[in-house]
Amino acid sequence: MKLIAITGSIGSGKSTVSKKIAEFFPVLNCDLINAELQDSNLEIQSELLEVFGEEIYCNQNLNRSLLAKLIFQDLEKKKKLEAIMHPRILDEIQARIINLSEAFVFVEVPLLFEVKWQAYFDLSVLVVSDERTIIERLIKRGMSENEAKMRLFQQMGIEEKKELADYIIENNGTVEELHEKVIELLQRLKGN
After folding, report:
1. Which conformational region is residue 11 in: left (phi greater than 0), alpha (psi within -120 to 50 degrees), or beta?
2. 192 in a domain, yes or no?
3. What residues pair up with 105 in beta bridges, in sequence order?
4. Inside any domain, residue 16
5. What pLDDT is attached to residue 192?
6. Fewer CB within 10 A of the terminal residue: the chain, N end or C end?
7. pLDDT tens sequence across 59-88
8. Could you tell me which residues come within 8 angstroms of residue 94 by beta carbon, excluding any fewer than 6 positions away?
9. Domain of 123: which CATH number?
10. Burial of residue 169 (number of CB atoms within 10 Å: 0-12, 13-18, 19+)
11. Domain membership flag for residue 112
12. How many domains does the chain fold into?
């Protein structure tokens, strides 16, 4: 089995790529695993309360938008959150793939290169879009232009990511064009 990371900047289209791949192979999603752990693991909840205070929980539910706001405004809090969550996310990925027997298992890892997780994967697939397209997508999701730019610029630059990636999928066209590129990638992977 090959373990393959799907990554890309916020708004690049990596989730659309993951959904298409999921029609053929198992796909795990680090953001979903993160949310599941935060919602179900009492030890994690206790640590989050200790670091971020009671205001991040509303009726015993994590206020993810407030948490995101806090970590994007304070680099130290972001590092503390990552220290709490990243080891547990990796453990959960390992636990979930242990019984899988497919030739390929994909994991959507938004910050693969930023957190230096490449070594945990056999290959990486980077989804890229031009900056203007990404910002327009994020605005459609409800972010202001400034917030979109701030989130985007807190991530590693696209050229640096391209240097580290094994495969690159350009996503500046239609969803149909993106799906065709995903199918081409899967055919290439099967051929290797």
Report:
1. left
2. no
3. 3
4. yes
5. 66
6. C
7. 778 999 899 888 888 889 999 999 999 999
8. none
9. 3.40.50.300
10. buried
11. yes
12. 1
